[in-house]
Write a structure and sequence with these properties.
The complex is a heterodimer. By secondary structure, chain A is an all-alpha fold. In chain A, 91% of the residues lie in helices and 0% in strands. Chain A has one domain. Helices cover 76% and strands 0% of the residues of chain B. Chain B is mostly helical. Classes of the chains: A mainly alpha, B mainly alpha. The interface between A and B is small, with 10 and 10 residues.
């Protein structure tokens, strides 16, 4: 096992730690928007770190190219879904207040 | 051992039929489920046994809670003759001891898995064992799953019946921001491509009819969210879904009762055509079902 692969395993573990903290955060935070923030963190930061670690483990191959594509799609669409959910929740709340 | 258990199982089913008091009926049902799970354990299916035990616990608690809500259970609890409960309690403890004695010795039988994994390429074809299982070995399960989806779609569309012939105003209130709409506009044309890819390559790579159908349905959802187009006729979608389900059933009957007894089954070309056709039909059915559900909630017209 080369040094890059060992670093890759460590990075995967870091990503899992991020995801675990995110799950704890979903239950610790009380308000909807705080929870949404933490859930979006799991989507982007956690998944991003895990996939980067897997690319380091596998080296340069077709598999890594697919993983890069998946990273691109997640970076593109993950924040968008959180944005849509948060925006619609905000507008519904504002309507209720009026 | 197993036959004694089965006899006991049938004996435990009888009190459910002849019991008049509804709470006891629920308790008997729980005991019956417990014995069912022990039988599963003895016959070497620990996963099914675990599921059965969980379901029995949940359903018993659920029934008891319902009766409590309905009949004011707390007052009845005071009138209970506690001496009568000694025999059922001993019975339950005995059953638990039996489970604990059997459980460490039960082994999962995996010969079916090994057989599937080593023979699926010549039996059903394709390179994806999941597709081989749900379109070959377990075709009945797939047909019933498609039927369940169909029944739930019909139920939702009939339960959420509204008489207004207008587009509902509620769904118009929440507008997307400009950025979200632009990004969805970019993603939107890729979705049908992705769905067709999943359906057409379902027999050799991860994917298949159900997943591809959901991707196809997401295309129509995105189209509504960005452009506000909702022009598909719901009634025709429902009829089309029924027709596709009928063709799935006819094709599977044809394959199971005619194809599996001839040599045609082992020709790779025929296998590939069959898998792609079946995946495409399932994909169309799932897409129609989900589009119908979505339209049912945004457009209150039937």
């Amino acid at each position: 096992m080369s040094i890059i692969q060992i670093v890759g395993h460590i990075v995967v573990v870091f990503g899992l730690v991020f995801i675990a903290f995110g799950i704890v955060g979903i239950y610790r935070f009380g308000e909807f928007f705080q929870r949404l923030l933490v859930a979006a963190k799991i989507d982007t930061v956690g998944t991003f770190t895990v996939i980067i670690g897997m690319i380091m483990i596998h080296g340069l191959s077709l598999f890594s190219a697919r993983l890069l594509l998946i990273i691109g799609i997640i970076m593109f669409l993950g924040p968008l879904s959180a944005h849509i959910v948060g925006r619609s929740a905000y507008s519904v709340e504002k309507e209720d207040d009026e | 051992m197993a036959y004694i258990l089965v006899a006991f199982w049938i004996l435990c089913a009888l009190p459910i039929l002849f019991e008049q008091r509804i709470r006891r009926m629920a308790i008997y049902l729980g005991i019956f489920s417990l014995i069912t799970s022990i039988i599963f354990l003895v016959f070497g299916a620990p996963d099914v046994a675990l599921a059965e035990a969980a379901i029995s616990i949940f359903s018993t608690i659920f029934f008891i809670t319902c009766f409590e809500k309905h009949y004011n259970f707390a007052e009845g609890l005071k009138k209970i003759n506690w001496k009568k409960l000694i025999i059922p309690a001993m019975f339950s403890i005995g059953l638990i001891v039996m489970v604990l004695r059997i459980a460490p010795h039960a082994e999962a039988s995996t010969y079916v898995m090994e057989q599937y994994l080593s023979y699926f390429q010549q039996d059903v074809g394709g390179d994806n064992p999941v597709t081989a299982i749900y379109l070959g070995y377990r075709l009945y399960d797939t047909v019933f799953e498609a039927l369940m989806l169909m029944v739930s779609v019909v139920a939702i569309s009939h339960l959420s019946w509204h008489k207004e012939a207008e587009v509902s105003e509620e769904s118009r209130h929440i507008q997307l921001s400009r950025h979200a709409r632009n990004v969805i506009r970019i993603v939107c044309p890729l979705l049908p491509l992705f769905g067709i890819y999943l359906i057409a390559n379902g027999h050799q790579s991860p994917g298949g009819g159900f997943q591809g159908g959901v991707a196809l349905a997401a295309f129509f959802v995105c189209r509504y969210m960005t452009y506000g187009i909702h022009d598909l006729p719901i009634k025709r979608l429902l009829i089309g879904e029924k027709l596709v389900l009928a063709s799935i059933i006819i094709l599977s009957i044809f394959v199971v009762f005619i194809g599996f007894h001839s040599q045609l089954q082992y020709v790779p070309m025929v296998q590939t055509i069959y898998l792609i056709t079946m995946n495409a039909l399932i994909g169309i059915k799932v897409a129609l079902g989900f589009v119908m559900l979505f339209y049912r909630f945004i457009v209150e017209r039937m």
